[in-house]
Specification:
four-stranded mixed beta sheet
Length: about 110
């Protein structure tokens, strides 16, 4: 699981929603901000009830994404805050498909070294 120091707190979440840049794909919408003075990446994953009705499914997807982001974090450029919003098509993806889509989005944002 991703450490709490790498998770976005409420105040920062609101700031990203209002000031952040957006990128859309088939499976995810991403809002992100670049922090010039920050030295760690921060993440949040949002899975709406419209996407997955059961809380068990939503939490499973969040845990999988946080776990993958923890493993991926050491290969990323520092100083980004990112919110991943899942879309309705995401429930059709396997875990490997999720990894590929997250990689693709983070490459488009410019987060990889």
């Amino acid at each position: 699981m991703l450490p709490s120091s790498n998770k976005i707190k409420t105040q920062l979440f609101k700031e990203i929603l209002s000031k952040g840049k957006i990128y859309n794909s088939i499976y995810f919408s991403v809002k992100f901000l670049e922090n010039p003075n920050g030295n760690i990446n921060k993440f949040a994953v949002v899975v709406p009830k419209k996407v997955m009705k059961k809380a068990i499914s939503r939490n499973l997807l969040r845990r999988r994404l946080f776990n993958y982001l923890k493993d991926l974090n050491k290969d990323l450029n520092k100083s980004f805050t990112i919110i991943l919003f899942c879309k309705s098509e995401v429930d059709k993806l396997s875990f490997n498909g999720l990894k590929k889509e997250v990689d693709l989005i983070l490459k488009k944002i410019g987060l990889f070294k």
